[in-house]
Every structure is written in C-alpha cells, then in structure tokens.
Amino acid sequence: MADNDIALMAHLMRRAGFGAQYEELEARAARGYETAVEELLHPEDHSNGMDLDLAERCFIEWNHFIRCVPEYIAWRMINSRNQLEEKMVLFWHGILCTADSKTQSYVTSQAELDMLRRRGMGNFRDLLLEISRDPAMVYFLDNCLSHKDAINENYGRELLELFSMGVGMDGEFNYTEDDVKECARAFTGWTIANGIPGQPYGRYSAQFVYNPEDHDEGEKTFLGHTGNFNGEDIIDIICQQPATARFISRHLYSFFVADEAQVPSWMNTPPRDPDTIKLLEEEYFRSGYDIRSMLRVLFNSDAFKDARFSRIKGPIETVIGTLRLVGDWNTPKPGFESIFDEMKHMGQEILNPPSVEGWHTGKEWIDGGTLVRRINFIADYVGDVSYPGIQDIVQKLAAEGPTISPEGLVEGCLRLLGHYELADETHQMLVEHARKSGELPTNTREFPDQVGNMLQMIVATKEYLYA
After folding, report:
1. For 153-189, what is each residue's pLDDT tens digit?
2. Confidence of residue 74 (pLDDT cuts 50, 70, 90)
C-alpha cells in the first residue's frame, strides 16, 4: 500500500473525525478512499462500537443526567466508530449555538445534541425546523418570551444572521430590519412547556409546544414574499436564498478544508477558494439542501485533498485527537473530568460557546497561555510509552530493523503520527538532535524513551498545531 494513500487517509480522518491510529489508517486505506468517505457519511449503516451500559456503571451521573454531562460528550468523540457523526455535532454546535451557562439543563442540551446527530448530515431545511423547535434554543434565544402582541426579535435575528444566511454577501445586505421583525412575528407561539421537577425521578428534557392562540396570524412580508407566514414558511424562504447556500458552503469549507476569515467579516470578505465554494453552492441546490451530498462533493474534491495542514486544530480536536492517538480513555475509569477541564483551559468548553456567535477559530485559538497548555498536554501523553498507541509506534519502528538511523527515527515518527510534514529547517533540527545518539539499537530498554522524546519534540513544533 502506498504511503500517499495512508497520508491522504490520515488527512481525511483528522478532518472528518478526530484522527486515528496508524493501524486504522492502513485498514481504511486498504478499502479505498471513496469507500472510506461513504462509510463516514453513513453512520446509520454501522454500530458506533460503544458499550454505553458499561460506561454508565462507572459514571453513574451519566445515567442520572440522561447521558449528558460534558465528559460524556467528549467520551463519545473519543470512542465512537462513527467519527464524522460526532464531528458534525461539534460543527453544528459551533453554529447553532446554545450554552449551558443559560439553559442549565443537561438533559435538554443532550436532546439537542442527539437531534444534531440525527439531522446533522441530512436536509438543511429539516435541521433548521428542528432547531427552531428545540427547547434549548427556544429558551436560549428567548422565543418563549415572544408573543403576538409583543415580539422578541432575538431568535428571528440570529436565525438570519448566524444560523442560515449571514448579514451580507458580496458587499450587499442579505436582509433588512423589517425582515427580522417579520421573521420574529412568524415564530410567535413557538414556545416550551413548563419544566418538570427534578425529583423524585430525575430531570427530564423540556418540551416544545406550539400555542396557536399566541401566534400572529397577520400578513407578513419577508425577503420579498408576502403571506400569512408561520415559522415553517419562513424556513422555506430562507432555504431558497443564494445567501444560504453561500453561508453553509463557507462554514463547511472553513471547518473541513482551511481556515477562513471570521464570520462577521464575510459580507465584505470574499471566500478564500471561490471555485470550491461555488461547487458546494451548486450541490446545495442540486441535492435539495442535503448536507451529506455537500460533504461528499467536498471530501472527494481536489481542494480538500490538497489542503493538508491548512487548519489550526481547535482545543477539542487537539485533546480528543491526542487521546485517540495514544489509546487512552477507551474504557471507563475515574478522573475523566480533568480531560474536559483541559479543553476549557485551552479556550473551548463543550456546551458553553462564548456567545451565540460561537467560537472564533483559526489563529484565534492560539495565544501565549493556551499554546503552552496545549503543547504540554500533548507532549505529556505522547512521551508516556505506557500508552498502547505509543507502544504501537515503538513496536512498528523497532520492526524496521535492529537499528534505526537518526533520519529514520524522525521520518518514522512523523509517518506514524499521521504523515505530518515539517519545514526543512525544523526537520533538520530534529535530525541533528537525533544524531547526538548516532544509530539507535531498537532492542534496548532506552529505545522506547528515545522514541517518546522524539514524539514530544515533534508535537512541540509549529507544524503540529495544524490538521
């Protein structure tokens, strides 16, 4: 099997998942790239491979909270075989934002995330309809406080600005203040039922309710269309807009291909890759707003395949990818709360985006404090040769012969980390460091630690910040 095939598979799994150990990359590459893409796109065809009942025996609070403490979400990201399904939860969680800091109901947040798993690769219209009826969203953006004689514009505004269209495109506004008001009128009556007490049976998720008596039945004019619109009508009109196709396409490109400008600047900042964005826009309409079809086009495009190491990893990607690489936390054990804390201290807290705008990404993930934190976290793990994933790297390198050259050590570690690439100057620095030990016997007690030391040096490089 060609190294190029495995390198491409490593790229796919870093983007469409949270990375993979080399053995999995080889197995997926042997089945072929397009086959791997289809397997990722169709999680319904495969078991997720997780024994949730076993996990709940260890983490009893997961059962009490109906499987929705943040640690449980992270555990799924590490262990689910359906990696793209979990990656899409993270993708939509950063766009269709709610935050536990306001909702304060893990079970209601869990119901939302389950919906994102169910709808995240489906029809965008259906997803917008579901998020508009989602109790966490209805409460988070105050639609339960919007009434036919006293509208609250919060949800209507964010639906247009941050969830579907964006403020503008190509220097022109996509909607007006009147459109925001008319949109809000159409969603009056979309509310939630009274909460259910937490005792004696534990908490239940809040429930969506449509109250026809509180719905504004008057005529509305929205984006040039006039009628007695309700929320579903508004969503239908939104999905027909070229701005919506552009908005979704740019988000997919920024998350899966290469760092784009931040969302607030999109009105006056053209796409980084207009040809690929145009390809995705065309697929959006051709497929009837189908996200899975857009992802298929994206993953099979040359733009995606050629975009290796052009995205800075977010904190969640960094932490989850490291744990998947070393093979930790694939069985329940105490202490998982600290893993969640690591993501939070690096700047990305599951269930708590900083605002309805979500997280700013790319270079904004990196500053002096969080950079040290992420490097130390990764280096501590990859330098510990007791982890099965690191042992596997050591064994694969040892199997290459009785000795390994300094160049072979550097190249082997880069390959087994997922075919990482370094600048010439950085690469030469690592080789010079390895040369201090000369040719390395692979059957000595010191060899695993020498491998661990080289892995630590690689993950401390600027290049390793990228996926």
Report:
1. 999 999 999 999 999 999 999 999 999 999 999 999 9
2. confident
Neighbours of 282 (CB within 10 A): 14
What are the Cα distances from residue 212, in Å, to 6, 189, 193, 195?
A: 56, 6, 14, 20
Helix, strand, or coil (residue 272) = coil
HSE-up of residue 2 (Cα within 13 Å, Cβ side) = 5
| CA–CA separation, 121 and 42 (whole Å) | 9
For the residues of 180-246, what is the DSSP string, one character each?
A: HHHHHHHTTTEEEPPPPPSTTT------EEE-GGGS--S-EEETTEEES--HHHHHHHHHT-HHHHH
Number of C-beta neighbours around residue 114 at 10 A: 15
Side chain identity, residue 286: R
pTM over 0.85: yes
Residues 298, 299, 305: CA angle, nearest 5 degrees: 105
Listed residue (85, 220, 204) closest to 156, CA to CA:
220
Helices (H), 289-416: 291-299, 302-305, 315-326, 337-346, 368-382, 388-398, 406-416
Q: Residues 28-69: pLDDT tens digits?
A: 999 999 999 999 999 998 887 776 666 666 666 665 554 456
Residue 57 exposure: Cα atoms within 13 Å on the Cβ side: 4
